[in-house]
Specification:
Keywords: Coiled coil. Residues 16-43 form a coiled coil. The protein has 2 helices and no strands. It is mainly alpha-helical. Helix 1 (2-134) packs antiparallel against helix 2. 96% of the residues lie in helices and 0% in strands.
Length: 194
C-alpha cells in the first residue's frame, strides 16, 4: 500500500513537473507572441504614419499640380501677349524705317532743288557781272569779275555735289540699317519658332 502511494506520489510529482514545464513553455511562447504582437503593432503604427505622410504628400502634389496648371495658363497668356506686342513692335519699327527712308528721299530731293537753285543763282550772278563789266572802263576789271563769278559757280557746284554724296551715303546707311534690323527679326522669329 505504501509502495503504491509512493508510486502515485512520484507519478503526481512527475505530472506536476511536466505541467510546470508546459506552463513555462506556454509562458515563453506567450511572451514570444507578445513580442511579435508588439513588433507588429510598431510596424502597423509606422505604416500608418507612412500612409498619413503619403496622403499628405499626395494632397500637396495635387495642390502643386493645380498651381502648375494655373501657372501654365498664365504663362501661355503672357506669351501670347508678348507675341502680340512683338508683332506691334515689329510693325512700328518697319513703319519707322520706311518713314526714315522717305525722309532721306525728301532730303535728296530738296538737295537737288537747292543745287538747281544755286546753279541758277550762279548763272544769274555771272550774267549780272558780265552786264556790269560791259560798262567798266578797264579790261582787267571785267576779267576779274568774270573769274570771281566762275569761282562762285564752281564753289556752288562743289557744294551741291557734296550734298548729293552726303544724301546718297545717308540713304545707303539707312538701307543697311533696315536690312540688319529685318535680318535680326528673322533670326528672332526662327529662334522662337523652331
Amino acid at each position: 500500500m505504501f509502495a503504491e502511494l509512493q508510486v502515485a506520489h512520484r507519478t503526481l510529482l512527475e505530472l506536476y513537473e511536466e505541467s510546470q514545464r508546459d506552463a513555462a513553455r506556454q509562458l515563453e511562447e506567450r511572451q514570444a507572441w507578445r513580442r511579435e504582437l508588439d513588433l507588429l503593432a510598431q510596424d502597423k503604427a509606422a505604416m500608418a504614419a507612412l500612409l498619413g505622410e503619403s496622403k499628405a504628400q499626395l494632397r500637396f502634389a495635387g495642390c502643386l499640380e493645380h498651381e502648375n496648371k494655373a501657372l501654365a495658363h498664365d504663362v501661355a497668356a503672357k506669351q501670347k501677349q508678348i507675341q502680340e506686342l512683338t508683332g506691334h513692335c515689329v510693325l512700328s519699327e518697319r513703319m519707322l524705317k520706311r518713314l526714315e527712308l522717305v525722309v532721306v528721299h525728301e532730303r535728296r530731293e530738296r538737295a537737288r532743288e537747292l543745287e538747281k537753285h544755286r546753279l541758277h543763282t550762279a548763272e544769274l550772278a555771272m550774267q549780272l557781272a558780265e552786264v556790269q563789266t560791259r560798262g567798266a572802263t578797264g579790261v582787267n576789271e571785267c576779267v576779274q569779275a568774270r573769274e570771281d563769278c566762275l569761282r562762285l559757280r564752281d564753289a556752288e557746284r562743289r557744294a551741291a555735289h557734296l550734298q548729293r554724296q552726303l544724301a546718297a551715303q545717308e540713304e545707303r546707311w539707312q538701307q543697311v540699317k533696315l536690312g540688319d534690323f529685318e535680318a535680326a527679326l528673322r533670326r528672332m522669329s526662327d529662334s522662337t519658332n523652331p
